[in-house]
Design goal:
Length: 228
């Protein structure tokens, strides 16, 4: 039992050390980021399937709209309430791409940039499952979660968080960002990227800072997609 605890602690220590070192190598405003959003069939990480992927890149505090990518996935999974929420019906999905084709188109962005998510845990779990399903090469990913950045700020202001205070739309409203069309993967990715830039300003991050300035917020992470 003690041996397992020591091994687990060692893994966590190595993970934190590797993440900190990587973040110290990345200047906030000289790093390429890609905001990613997945539309999923459910919120259950163990069974959810991807129905669409949206992403958009940026660097130096600017978003490059020419970098936008959007892929609808051909899936026969149980859609649940997904057609109502995301407006992706079976007819639309049947005309979509194969999952492996979409992942191969998206993979170069993962290799070259730091990923931005709003609720990274759910999307990364779905991406990891998709990578394994399609036998994609393992890829190391550094990411930032705008949801966790929001919670970090909110926990400094409230003992008990207000209901739904960390949704993407509410986080944007709190920082005076305009309303957007929710539940489309590309629109959500763009909205998440805009939120991240506003959060950097809110946190007082300067052009001379490296990404380890965000480590204490708990919003930075490092994972291997397709790994065990």
């Amino acid at each position: 039992m003690i041996k397992k605890w020591i091994e687990a602690y060692s893994r966590v220590f190595r993970y934190k050390s590797k993440l900190k070192q990587r973040l110290r190598e990345l200047d906030v405003y000289n790093t390429s980021f890609v905001a990613v959003d997945l539309e999923l069939t459910s919120l259950n990480p163990s069974t959810t399937q991807i129905t669409s992927v949206g992403y958009v890149s940026g660097r130096g505090g600017c978003i490059d709209l020419s970098s936008c990518g959007y892929h609808v996935i051909n899936t026969t999974a149980d859609l649940g309430q997904s057609p109502v929420i995301h407006r992706l019906t079976l007819d639309i999905l049947k005309k979509g791409e194969a999952l492996d084709e979409a992942l191969h188109a998206f993979a170069p962005h993962i290799k070259q940039q730091v990923l931005i998510f709003h609720n990274a845990k759910l999307d990364l779990t779905a991406l990891n499952s998709a990578f394994k399903q399609c036998a994609m090469p393992k890829m190391d990913v550094v990411y930032v979660d705008t949801l966790q950045l929001a919670l970090y700020q909110l926990n400094k202001q409230h003992q008990v968080l207000p209901s739904n205070s960390a949704t993407l739309s509410v986080c944007r409203q709190r920082l005076d960002l305009p309303a957007f069309n929710e539940h489309n993967a590309l629109d959500d990715a763009l909205a998440t990227h805009q939120l991240f830039l506003a959060q950097l300003s809110e946190l007082g991050v300067s052009k001379s800072d490296t990404l380890d300035c965000l480590y204490h917020t708990g919003a930075m992470g490092y994972v291997q997609l397709g790994g065990a």
